[in-house]
Amino acid sequence: MLIPQVQKLLTTPLTQKNRQNQSRLTVIFWYSLSLTFAVGYIIMGVRQAFSSKYIVSDDAREYISWMYRYFNPDLFPGDLIADYFQSVTPIGYGLLYKIIAALNIDLTFFSKIFPIVLGLITTSYCFAVCIQILPVPMAGFIASLLLNQSLCMHDDLFSATPRDFIYPLFLAFLYYSIRSSALGILIVLALQCLIYPVIGFVDLLILFLRLFSWKNGQISISQNRKDFILFAAAIMIVGIMILPYAIQSSQFSPVITAAVARTMPEYWDGGRFKYFSHNIISYWFDGRDSGFFALISPPQLLVGLLLPIILKIQSPYFLLTKQVNDQVKLLLQVVIASLIMFFTAHALAFQLYWPSRYTHHTFKIILALAAAISITLILDATFRWSRQNGRQILILGASIILGLGLVLHPSSFSLKVFPKTPYVEGTVPTLYNFLQKQPQNIVIASTSEEADNIPIFAQRTILVGKEYALPTHTKYYAQFRQRMVDLINAQYTEDINQLKEFIQKYHVTFWLLERSAFIPEYITKNTWLQQYQPAAQQANTNLQKALPILATLINSCAVLETDNLVLLKTECIKVVTKT
């Protein structure tokens, strides 16, 4: 009696007659299970975010630091880095945090708890989309489980950046597309364009592809006028919503060209972006920024590639394939639209952002849905074969193996740490507290990576920082690179006048040094500093000859010291250099 009940719970579709109440209970069970795993994964990640006061998502330092201007407009005066990231922050994302600031909620705190909301919305829409295509609740559970595992293996849910919104919004777009809800489609499209504009182009292409259908070996055009009205409205929304963002971000345009990027170490191994590669397969296939199949995991997602084959199988064991809704074609439309934008982004590099962003996220979603449907169809076929051949015990065995394989894989075998979160911890609270007490117009110069944490934890301006070294927009990076070159030259010079000129030019108030900064390995093994040639090489040469003048001023000008950091006050340096 147990085995038939197992099969009934797992693969019986919702469309059978006289099962309304039972169907509702089955849906509630699998949906609740989906939310349970989602909450469990998310809480595991969020718990890490609150393990210390000074913890924040890696990329949040870029997007959220400048937003503290919402609390105090006088913060970061004349700050190149803050101005740049404010200009490239999508309008909708900035507006959300502006509302949060108006509610007097700390922005860093909000960035840590909001993944819970996004994760639950993502899970809900993923479950709903899947059972719209295949009305088997277990399939919805598998799809949401695989997608949540995938999100927790990368920083696609805890990044506190606009990309966290891709998954709930894109899945909502798919859901309303399946349901033919024009209002739902347009609302989600508008939100997508406001928060993560590049996916808006994929949405638009999907709506275009849905104007056509393939029947009997021929392409036919929709005869429904509403479809064309919807597409025209979508074009208007994309144009209206993205134009203000394009104007806002043009402050630091133009975008660097691919030809120029090829000459820059920032775009190769060891650079800020590893975009180009001498391995052509890696470049097109799994390159983080250039490949169309980048960061696809867990491997169970690849089962989704079998779906087109399974749907073609003519077998009495695969009867459940008849329950697959015609809307399964939407998965293919997403793939086509994503690839079109992927190759367009390559052709126009880097005008449309990184090419992989058009496939990385959408492919994860599509593969999770396709894998869930494929697994459900295979499992049902296994059940039918087992029952027909008098081996019903295989039903129970297959169910147990499937459950263990889906649930245990990522946390027990794939990763030592699951979920994998992008959090970084500030380790020098005394530094942040000291700088917060200083005037708001101070400028801190440093080649230390600890400088990256100063804007978010102390709300003070840094001259440069590794995390903020984005070589995308020429007007920004030209200034940033010049600052880096001047900083390296000044930090390792023997010329007192050069040091004074640097401090005066950039109005530097404090200089943050690592105690190891004056040994050759600090430069030669630092891939970030090595990008700035010939300054890095000259600095190394200077170290071989004599101790830089700045190193001799540490004892007399230090205002704060930790185990590996020393903060110097430049007013002291000016006085000392005059004597």
DSSP helix fraction: 55-70%
Q: Which regions have little confidence, pLDDT < 50, spanning 5+ residues?
A: none
Number of helices: 25
Record field, number of beta strands: 9
Strand order of the largest sheet: 6-5-7-9-8
Q: What is the mean predicted local confidence, pLDDT?
A: 89
What is the CA-CA span between the terminal residues?
95 Å
The portion of residues forming beta strands comes to 5-15%
Shape: elongated
Structural class: mainly alpha
Description:
- There is one protein chain.
- The protein is mainly alpha-helical and 579 residues long.
- Helix content is 57%, strand content 6%.
- The chain contains 25 helices and 9 strands.
- It is elongated.
Q: Quick gist of this model?
A:
The chain is 57% helix and 6% strand. The protein is mainly α and 579 residues long.
Task: Identify the notable features of this structure and list them briefly.
579 residues, mainly alpha, two-stranded antiparallel sheet, five-stranded mixed sheet, elongated, 9 strands, 6% strand
